[in-house]
Design goal:
The chain has helices at about 15-30, 60-70, 75-85, 95-100, 115-120, and strands spanning about 5-10, 35-40, 90, 110-115, 125-130. It is of the alpha/beta class.
């Protein structure tokens, strides 16, 4: 039985993206099976345009220089790393419908499904996280 990490991404800011993708890529690089369920504002993390321009929390602008000095990968780079490592991306169908978004509005390679799709994966996950 493989070890699974189930992540719910429901917030859509820059720090949220770093939390989600840092955990997901670290887990996948450690041979864990990883799935991320993107819902509500979390859909920004996989939106074709939005994931390039996620907002820095107000008053935290000094982190930008620190990220650059530390060679922290950008969110688009982390997305690609996660995809290369086999992380499964699931866009929430209900939220997409409510926001009038289509699969084509998102990065290539995502699955679209409801909570049941994610729960099927998460039911025997060793680690479950929400950001």
């Amino acid at each position: 039985m493989s070890e699974k990490v189930a992540i719910i991404a429901s917030n859509g800011g820059l720090f949220d993206a770093y939390k989600v993708y840092n955990i997901a890529t670290a887990a996948a690089a450690s041979d864990k099976e990883v799935a991320i369920f993107f819902t509500f504002e979390g859909l920004n993390l996989i939106h074709k345009e939005a994931h390039h321009n996620l907002p820095m929390p107000e008053g935290k602008e000094h982190y930008a220089e620190g990220f650059q000095k530390a060679n922290v990968p950008s969110i688009p780079e982390l997305v690609e790393m996660a995809k290369e490592l086999g992380v499964t991306f699931i866009g929430c169908q209900m939220t997409m419908d409510a926001m009038q978004l289509e699969k084509e509005d998102f990065i290539d390679g995502i699955d679209v499904g409801g909570a049941v799709s994610f729960l099927e994966f998460a039911k025997d996950a060793n680690v479950s996280l929400t950001f």
